[in-house]
Design goal:
single chain; alpha/beta; Rossmann fold; 8-stranded mixed sheet; 13 helices; 8 strands
């Protein structure tokens, strides 16, 4: 309505409307009188019922992000010097031990809601966590339907690239502290197609705080984007010497706590295990143990001629 309308001003809005439109029959429940429609009036159109699921665009699975760094060759001589497993070498006592470890680990990761993230840690330094992390990664890389990313997360004393004879560069901490650094550019590819290495990167004065930020979860998801079968292994700092290990445990599905047979005390082991909270499954790996003459001796079977 406008100022040119000729409706009487008396009465309420409802009364004024009644002067224009007779709602009496409708309000009393009587049907409105039939109206004669023109013969050439087109038939009424029934609106189509649209299924939201049918009209929604199909979901596209995430695409795996390619590692863009150059391929580097793992130094086999360094592996021998360090006592590590040699890829494609004959079975040894050490390789058989880690085959048992990885079989149990793969079973624990199957269907785990936290994905395929494994934390290798220890109570103190010198107990063999890096040794176990590298050997576990080499053993898992031999699987036919898996690929492995070994992350050097010991920011204070990184050593994985050097142990494998690889040239290091920017790494995990650089991607955490600098949003312009793409984490897939930091990954080192190796001549083992199923094994890649992520260096620790430049250490900051707030390693724990950066690891505890929301960006960590985003970057870790990028590392497995489009590859749900990829196993990510973190070599962390010692639990009782640095705080980042406990934060990393909150992102892992399984924590392998390395115990040195001749060094790790029970109280230290209990304190270290107590720091692994947040729902992570904790398993122990006994390192540097001496087998008895009647115990299992893997490797000797494969060296026999019969």
């Amino acid at each position: 309505m406008n100022k040119h309308s000729s409706i009487a001003a008396a009465g309420s809005l409802i009364e004024r409307a009644t002067n224009l439109y007779d709602f009496t029959d409708a309000l009393r429940g009587r049907a409105a009188p039939a109206m004669e429609l023109p013969a050439d009036l087109p038939p009424p159109v029934t609106p189509a019922v649209v299924d939201p699921a049918a009209s929604a665009p199909p979901s596209v699975p995430p695409v795996a992000l390619p590692w863009r760094g150059p391929v580097q060759r793992i130094d086999r001589e360094k592996l021998v010097e360090g006592g590590y497993i040699l890829p494609d070498d004959q079975a040894t006592a050490l390789s058989e031990e880690f085959r048992i470890v990885k079989r149990d680990l793969i079973a624990q990761l199957a269907g785990n809601p936290r994905g395929n993230r494994v934390l290798v840690c220890s109570a103190h330094s010198g107990e063999g966590k890096t040794f176990c992390a590298i050997n576990l990664a080499l053993s898992l890389a031999a699987e036919k339907d898996r690929d492995v990313l070994l992350v050097d997360a010991d920011f204070g004393k990184p050593g994985i690239p050097e142990a494998l004879g690889l040239s290091s560069g920017p790494g995990l901490m650089d991607a955490l502290t600098d949003p312009t650094v793409q984490i897939e550019d930091c990954v080192l590819r190796t001549d083992l197609p199923s094994l890649a290495i992520l260096p620790a990167g430049q250490r900051s004065n707030a390693d724990t705080e950066f690891l505890a930020s929301a960006r960590t979860a985003i970057l870790l998801d990028r590392l497995t984007q489009g590859r749900p079968d990829r196993i990510v292994i973190f070599d962390s700092p010692p639990l009782l010497a640095a705080s980042p290990a406990a934060v990393l445990a909150s992102h892992a599905a399984v924590a392998l706590l390395v115990v040195r047979a001749d060094r790790t005390g029970e109280s230290a082991l209990r304190d270290a295990a107590g720091m692994l909270k947040g729902g992570v499954q904790v398993q122990l790996i006994l390192n540097a143990v001496q087998f008895s003459a009647t115990g299992r001796r893997f490797g000797s079977y494969y060296s026999k001629g019969d």
